[in-house]
UniProtKB/TrEMBL annotation:
Key words, A-Z: DNA replication, DNA-directed DNA polymerase, Nucleotidyltransferase, Transferase
Residue span(s) of domain DNA polymerase III delta N-terminal: 21-137
InterPro entries listed in its UniProt record: DNA_pol3_clamp-load_cplx_C, DNA_pol3_delta-like_C, DNA_pol3_delta_N, DNA_polIII_delta, P-loop_NTPase
The name this protein goes by in its record: DNA polymerase III subunit delta
Family: Belongs to the DNA polymerase HolA subunit family.
Signal peptide annotation: none
Enzyme Commission number, as recorded: 2.7.7.7
One function term, GO molecular function aspect: DNA-directed DNA polymerase activity
GO terms under biological process: DNA-templated DNA replication
UniProt GO cellular component terms: DNA polymerase III complex
Swiss-Prot/TrEMBL catalytic activity: DNA(n) + a 2'-deoxyribonucleoside 5'-triphosphate = DNA(n+1) + diphosphate
Annotated DNA polymerase III delta subunit-like C-terminal domain residues: 210-328
Alphabetized Pfam families for the sequence: DNA_pol3_delta, DNA_pol3_delta_C
Length: 333
């Protein structure tokens, strides 16, 4: 059966562990975390020397996986076979594994882990009948709050909503990096139970990241001198022009959404709720959003699209193209 990640979590809480699982998706951190949780429930650490087999899709044959699944456990109730990068299993390997999927072994748990699977294949169609498939999609930024809270809860800590927003602003949606930074912050606050904005600023703040945010804010405020100064600093430090273009696009898209809300005469609390922007950030963005009207936003996004094509086709000097865009966005030309 197909399950959403939250449904999968509920099933694990209910128990017992089943014989077949396929955990996959474009967010490796979530997949790794789910596999670890499943493995912890399926097989205690002291039983893994004899009862855990870890294989890799491209490097193993279907018969090898099938033999591992059909091997009887030693000194344990269950044997676990984990196949990483399962999307790389050959057609022949999937064919050899089909009998194991159609007739699961009660004393084994087969876990397939990967980035992509083709559910149109007969193998996965049969897998859904006897086992569990769970896809872990990369979360949007407005979905990161619960993940951050769960991660900090594992350290016995809480976080202020504004601090969580600031952390997302610094790190983005890279969950591996988020987890790493949360571990640092949790260590930094020692016995204190709650992570604050000041803690995030002290530990997570990065000069390059700060400069990129300052560049975006300068554009939003139509501060041409400040924007050019920060652009030159960032490029001098080796930041990729395409990354800067992506951040500028994201920032202006957010301002455009706010401007449309303002044109609809929505109050700040309504805008905060509709767009998922915390009041900690919204105040400054409201000021910036008013600096452009709807037609100007459309013009700027047409220009951003042209810049993206030009940079990817090597049609011009990236630094110069970005300078021209800042002149146009801040100066109105």
């Amino acid at each position: 059966m197909l399950l959403k990640p939250e449904e999968f979590s509920q099933e694990l809480q209910k128990g017992p562990v089943g014989p077949l699982y396929c955990l996959y998706g474009e967010e490796p951190y979530l997949v790794d975390r789910a596999v670890k949780r499943l493995l912890d429930l399926a097989l205690p650490p002291d039983a893994r020397d004899f009862n855990l087999a870890v294989l890799y899709g491209k490097e193993c044959k279907g018969e090898e996986v099938a033999d591992a699944v059909q091997t009887f456990p030693m000194f344990a109730d269950r044997r676990v076979v984990l196949v990483k990068r399962c999307g790389e299993l050959s057609a022949a390997a999937l064919e050899a594994l089909l009998p194991v999927v159609q007739n699961p072994v009660a004393t084994s748990c087969l876990i397939l882990q990967g980035e992509k699977v083709d559910q149109r294949l007969k193998f996965f169609a049969e897998f859904k009948k006897s086992g569990v498939l769970v896809e872990f999609k990369r979360p949007y930024e407005n979905q990161l709050g619960p993940i951050i809270r769960d991660e900090l809860a594992s350290h016995g800590k809480r976080i202020e909503p504004a601090a969580a927003d600031l952390l997302i602003g610094y790190v983005g949606s890279n969950l591996q990096e988020l987890a790493s930074q949360l571990e640092k912050v949790a260590t930094f606050i020692a016995e204190r139970p709650t992570v604050t904005v000041a803690d995030v600023r002290a530990i997570v703040s990065d000069t390059k990241v700060d400069s990129v945010f300052e560049l975006c804010n300068a554009v939003g405020n139509r501060d041409l001198a400040g924007a050019l100064r920060r652009l030159h600093t960032i490029l001098r430090d080796g930041e990729a022009p395409l990354m800067l273009l992506s951040m500028l696009t994201r920032h202006l898209r957010q301002l455009w959404q706010i401007r449309e809300c303002l044109d609809q005469r929505l109050a700040p609390p309504e805008i905060e709720k509709r767009l998922g922007i915390r009041s900690f950030f919204l105040k400054g963005l409201l000021v910036q959003a008013k600096n452009f009207d709807g037609e100007r936003y459309r013009q700027l996004f047409e220009r951003l699209f042209e810049l993206d094509l030009a940079m990817k086709s090597s049609g011009g000097n990236p630094a110069q193209l970005l300078e021209y865009f800042l002149l146009e966005a801040c100066g109105g030309r």
